[in-house]
Write the structure tokens for this entry.
Amino acid sequence: MNKLENFVKGSWVTGDDEGQILYNAVTAETIASATTQGLDFKAMIDYAHTVGNPNLRKLTFHERGRMLRALAMHLRNHLEKFYTLSYKTGATKADSWVDIEGGIGNLFSYASLRRKFPDETFAVDGDGINLSKHNTFMGHHMLVPKEGVAIHINAFNFPVWGMLEKCAVNWLAGMPAIVKPATITSYLTEAVVKEIIASNILPQGALQLLCGNVGDLLDHVTAQDVITFTGSKSTALKLKKHESILNESVPFNMEADSLNCIVLGDDVNPNDAEWDIFIKEIRKEMTAKAGQKCTAIRRIFVPENKMEDAWKSLKQSLSQTVIGNPLNDKVRMGSLAGQSQRNEVKQQVQKLLASSQLIYGSLDSVEVTGADASKGAFLSPLLLMNSTPFASNAVHEIEAFGPVSTIMPYKNLDEAIALSKMGKGSLCSSIVTANDTIAKQYVLGAGTHHGRILILNKDCAKESTGHGSPLPMLVHGGPGRAGGGEEMGGMRGVKHYMQRVAIQGSPTSITNITNVYQQHAKSIQSSVHPFKKYFEELSIGDQVITEKRIITSEDINRFADLSGDHFYAHIQTTNFAGTMFEQQVAHGYFIMSIAAGLFVDSYEKNPVLLNYGIDELRFTKPAYPGTEIYIKFTCKEKLPNDKRITNNAEDFKRGDDIEKGIVKWLVEMIDETEEQVGIATILTMVAKKN
Ligand code: NAP
């Protein structure tokens, strides 16, 4: 029989024994066997530490991001192969799309996220903090990639997304990965990893794969490694207590069972658009991936006077689901991932039935299209009802990882909030309501117990990404029972794979280390105005100290007329008693404008292509007529720019052909007493010489 291969230390190898046989979930035919028997797990970690990690950490965020993009593009060329295998896991086309193209989408998202990071191997975190009276000592935070490996132990339900949602993040952070998919669907993960490796896009050592158990891998983890686990709580707890993980304080991110819920707002009635939205969302969550989603809705809370209408609508909606072979176009719900999963779901449902009743579906029979129900791991959607949710713990604690959900009544919103919390921590919760007062009360009341809350109504339903979709730029994870972990979340996720280090020193040292100019650091004066320099020629700290300009009352009057801003504080004749000001004060925007007049150089064309905007602008002291302003204008940060200027104007389109970068400038506006009147960071686009 075909044995799945493991990717170990840069080579494809098979394990020594027969291994676990893997079956087609729809037809019960054998697909392959999987084993990691005889592999040298310690050597895998050493290889990741000594080869993969140095190869990745020496790349800048932008290089790593472009690598992710190239990989995503490459994988898109092999979709058919992946879909063919995915159908064997019981997934429909729509389910497979989420797994495969959702996973690739994650690579694209994290590729784009590179632009939020500097073109450096490290990142600066937050703002600098002045720690001294005379501005000679300050603090800052930096992030450097950890020196270890990310070990991802994944659940069976998303063999592709489960790997890529995690790897996209550790690769962008500069760490390699060892991926261990759940064995039963590992043949799909193996196929994707084969394409990843064949593409030659990742540096050596960036990825290793285990199709089978992890052997003694965890005995060899170190403090620089990160473990992420997705699966059942029982396995998670076993692993989390592992001696090496405890001894070495290895970060262990856990995503486990989750009793997610949806609440129908009391404002929603059967004829409202929100009613249909509610019913549709539940059906989708119960049947997508045959309910084998960590985020699937397990608990449904409905105002008690609407229970009957709700369960009748739900039964009607569920009855329209065509179940069967995912290869059949009419099929909307496939099989579970295997017979063992089906048996486990049935056992869990039996436990739930001790305190709930089955009101839709059957545990024993299911009608299927294009398949043999006796061979495939099919199960009908099962809707349960529990009339006494405060008296039953099981419904809030037992997760049946299949197309199973329980509907329950509540009396008022406080009860709905309390019931939602009885799950003791979930990945996500939804509330369907057209009333934002109800929504706010729910978010503030239940927010402590859910990783994500979706507020669904007709204003957003059409474009909503749905209750069950974790998104790359939003945090995925939940407190308590859900594991207490956090994945993705845009930049937040990247930081899990980097060490944050606080640094202290003089502004000049901090500037030299971070490559970001810090206020009060030594600057570089030169006879050439920085606007005359190309991107490559500019140095962090290049500074111009401008001429001085006196602000007059006439200037302020003219600026008020020109801009139309006649706010009372800018009017000479205002009675200033009881105001914040002593007399007519200059508009902050006027100060900013004269700042530009002072620091912008020359009528001639120069490498500065355009002013891109202002990041931060603060007016820190009123400027009255007679104030004499000058500007310290300093090159603060340089960012390469590899994106199009997305503007339709023809002039801007032409700019796409020019090689350029973004330069941030610190603008310090200072008066005759050497006090700061305003401060800003402005952005310009500067041409490259070559
Ligand atoms: P599982 O049995 O706990 O397995 C999860 C992973 O752990 C698999 O890769 C499994 O490998 C591995 N594993 C099991 N025992 C291990 C051990 N002693 N040492 C190292 N690895 C071990 O869970 P599952 O059946 O795959 O997934 C279903 C469960 O996952 C459900 O309860 C569901 O709630 C949860 N889930 C949670 C999320 C989330 O994000 N919160 C997402 C998906 C699923 P083998 O396959 O080789 O046993």
Summary: DSSP finds 19 helices and 28 strands in the chain. The pocket of NAP is lined by residues 153-157, 180, 182-183, 213-214, 230-232, 235, 238-239, 255-258, 294, 399, 401, 427, 482-483 (CB under 6 Å). The mean pLDDT is 94.
